[in-house]
Amino acid sequence: MRDTSTAAAVGAAVALAEEHGLRAREPVVLKDSYNVRVHLRPAPVVARIPTVTALGRPDPEEALRRELEVVSYLHRQGTPVVPPSALLPPGPHLRDGFAVSFWEYAEPGPPQEVTPEAAGRALAALHEALRGFPGELPHLGAALDEPAHLLRLLTDDLTPGVLDRLREGLAESGARLRARPAVPVHGDAHAGNLIAAEGGLLWNDFEESMSAPPGWDLACLLRSGRIDGAAAVRAYGADPASPELRDCLAARAVQGVIWMLARARRFPDGRPAAEDALRGWLRARG
């Protein structure tokens, strides 16, 4: 059976880096949640290795390839993003069953609070830059296709009744979202994906980039627990109570519950929180 532990993911990234002439003498895991992110110290390079997110993607390598294309385009346009690494081929690479990409390490700047106004304006500027992206993005892929794939994996974890309710919620959201005009979006534009670096705020983590209503990213921002989401949406120039945003919030809610349940497969200590979120979602649906 393939080793899918954090140590194995880090080992795959370190081995790949060394094959390209970069020795990571002091690798440090920055985050281990839906992906493993490891700083390949002393080099200013971060490796991202999908772990939980790979469960929802039949081809995790393709998601990384799309992310690299989107971010490379934005970086060339001067958009403030964390760019792919220039010290070795950014990928995506495959090693020991893991997909791996390499990114520039964003040196933390002075401690600063990401204000709602700054987040809203940053998202408006990002959407403007994304409109020129020349490549193809999956229509509602992260919003609908990935959760649907996860539900097939969760069949043994949930009762048939709960599975049916989640499928119904996803289908209802899909019908509403498909009826709305779509543009390129970040896909996971919550305040936690704005990094306070030395040069200012940088957008990070574009692996869920897709074609969707702009309200999808606004729903991510609105649901963020780090800032006043409604104020951020207003700073963007949108109405937090708009019908589009209401539909996107409903879709984001069911997507989030499904991902939490999937994450609990790798991190069992997260199952109580996932089950609480599921119960809350079911109550809200009545």
From TrEMBL:
<feature type="domain" description="Aminoglycoside phosphotransferase">
    <location>
        <begin position="36"/>
        <end position="241"/>
    </location>
</feature>
<dbReference type="InterPro" id="IPR011009">
    <property type="entry name" value="Kinase-like_dom_sf"/>
</dbReference>
<dbReference type="Pfam" id="PF01636">
    <property type="entry name" value="APH"/>
</dbReference>
<protein>
    <submittedName>
        <fullName>Phosphotransferase enzyme family protein</fullName>
    </submittedName>
</protein>
<keyword id="KW-0808">Transferase</keyword>
<dbReference type="InterPro" id="IPR002575">
    <property type="entry name" value="Aminoglycoside_PTrfase"/>
</dbReference>
<dbReference type="GO" id="GO:0016740">
    <property type="term" value="F:transferase activity"/>
</dbReference>
